[in-house]
Design goal:
Layout lengths: L3 H4 L2 H26 L3 H22 L4 H25 L4 H23 L15 H4 L7 H20 L1 H9 L1 H6 L4 H40 L5 H25 L5 H19 L4 H13 L1
Helix pairs in contact: 2-3, 2-7, 2-10, 2-11, 3-4, 3-5, 3-10, 4-5, 4-10, 7-10, 10-11, 10-12, 11-12
Length: 295
């Protein structure tokens, strides 16, 4: 039964506002990497950000969200640059490069985390919360975490709006974009900044394991309902935001339910439904092929 009291509770308002903002912006930004055919880069960067978090803790001996986020950004950016270098100078396919980078960086993060556990050099620093960056712990986000999401999310949204036309042209015809003088290197950098910012802000909510779902699933859902880029961005953002609110509500009502996992479950359900019944989904494609066969 629907519980109105949950919607007005302090914990729901804090967690719901943080997850809504992050998921809505992540949904829109994720459309860029999905349409560019590089959706798994978000997964690789998300995993690669974890060792940066642990290294930041080892350097500063505190779990200050800003410091840990900076560590995640540095580590994730390093991984992205490494992916591009390997891609340009080897014969490996992108999926193989992503798999190697993802597993290597995440493995380093786990080794470092194991190193500091029980190490006397870090006994005076609280390190229990570091595990939340692996699987996420959205139910325990605080006002400072919501502020961090705002500080990262709003500039990200502004960048998307300011460079909307350039990004649109870059996605659908990169060669033409270069021909008319658009600096594609700059756009790659802007897309990296937006993606990395969302990943860094979202690690505490859904963790390194599930962070890519925030970027991919709303985009997949949106693409089943429209082919117009502006509408896809809006639908993806709305899908992400609504999924976050529903997932947060479910996890608040049912004790023991992980907020991040609940949000991803709702996103996944919407994506599957859209893949089946959407205007560009499976049923529509089957009907279209039948009509073409009859003709």
């Amino acid at each position: 039964m629907f519980n109105m009291d949950v919607l007005t509770s302090y914990s729901f308002l804090i967690v719901g506002s943080g997850t809504f903002l992050l998921a809505a912006i992540a949904g829109a930004v994720g459309c860029i990497t999905v349409l560019k055919g590089q959706s798994l880069i978000g997964d690789a960067i998300g995993h690669a950000a974890f060792p940066g978090i642990v290294l930041s803790f080892m350097l500063f001996l505190q779990r200050e969200p800003v410091l840990l986020t900076l560590g995640a950004v540095v580590s994730g950016t390093t991984a992205f640059m490494l992916i591009q270098v390997i891609k340009e100078n080897s014969k490996l396919e992108l999926d193989a490069i992503l798999a190697v980078t993802l597993s290597s960086f995440f493995g380093v993060g786990m080794v470092l985390k194991s190193h500091i556990q029980g190490n006397s050099a870090y006994k005076d620093a609280a390190q229990s919360g570091l595990s939340s960056y692996i699987f996420g712990q959205a139910a325990y986000i605080m006002k400072d975490d919501v502020k961090l999401i705002l500080y990262i999310g709003i500039p990200t949204l502004i960048l998307l709006i300011l460079f909307y036309k350039e990004i649109k042209l870059f996605l659908f015809d990169e060669i033409y974009a270069r021909t008319i003088g658009i600096k594609t290197v700059l756009l790659y950098g802007i897309i990296l900044v937006m993606t990395m910012g969302i990943i860094a802000a979202g690690l505490k909510l859904v963790g390194a394991i599930l962070i890519s779902s925030l970027l991919i699933m709303p985009a997949i859902t949106a693409l089943q309902w429209s082919e117009k880029f502006s509408k896809v961005l809006i639908i993806a953002g709305v899908t992400g935001g609504i999924s976050a609110l529903i997932g947060t509500y479910i996890s608040t009502v049912y004790d023991g339910m992980s907020t991040g996992a609940a949000i991803i479950l709702v996103m996944g359900s919407l994506a599957v439904i859209s893949l089946v019944i959407g205007p560009h989904g499976m049923i529509s494609n089957i009907k279209m092929r039948r009509r073409e066969g009859n003709d």
